[in-house]
Specification:
There is one protein chain. By secondary structure, this protein is of the alpha+beta class. It is built from 2 helices and 3 strands, in the order H-E-E-E-H. The chain has a 3-stranded antiparallel sheet. A hairpin with a 4-residue loop joins strand 2 and strand 3. The longest helix is centred in the last third of the chain and has 31 residues. It starts with 6 loop residues before the first helix and ends in a 7-residue tail after the last helix. The mean pLDDT is about 90.
Length: about 100
Amino acid sequence: MGREIDETWIDEAVERYQRIEARLAELDRVVKGVEVTVRSPDDLVEVVVTADGTVRDVRIHGGARSNEELSRAVREAVTAAADAAGWARRKLHAEMFGAYQPLT
């Protein structure tokens, strides 16, 4: 005896997949447009980054006493920007996909 195919379940699964794919495409588009601005702890460097991790701008606000101090400020600001981009991406993902429940 062969297995019965639940065509309704298959149709619903396909529709759900298509909705998720459309949402993923929307998420990819949205993360490119969301910008986060962070500064180094000493306010020497400001970095603007998108939620997809693209650095849009780096601003040096002067006042560094040495190249080492400026390098440290750049590293700290870039690290903070990467963290902020990840946070923004996770927040957007949760907003867009939080209502989706796994198939059961």
